[in-house]
# Entry
Amino acid sequence: MPRRHWLVKSEPFKYSWDQFVRDGSTYWDGVRNALARNNLRAMQKGDLVFYYHSNEGKEVVGVARVTREHYPDPTSDDERWLVVDLKPVKALKQPVGLAEIKADAALAEIPLVRQSRLSVMPLDKKAFDRILKLGGTTLPKKA
# Structure
């Protein structure tokens, strides 16, 4: 099955890319929106995920990989909520800001622009590759 691509958002003062890299992995918790939860449910081991700093910074800063598919959110007693495990892959050489994304015609229809409040969203491969290019970043073939 072909790999899928995603974007997750975190406020850097709550959980920054740098903290994620120091931790080496994390489970992506705290999602309390049904559409975002459904996106977590659709993530598969090996999928690539952009890490986006929301509110402060408003920029894509790194790439992660799904290392474990969805399971119950250990921070919630409500079985509807899920998490996935993520591992950092690589920081972008140059963070890609929301203004730059919005200004790029090839990215005008991505969920980050159209559904800006959604915390977990899919990206097609073309958009994912475009943001990588804007960030001056290449991934190893096995990433």
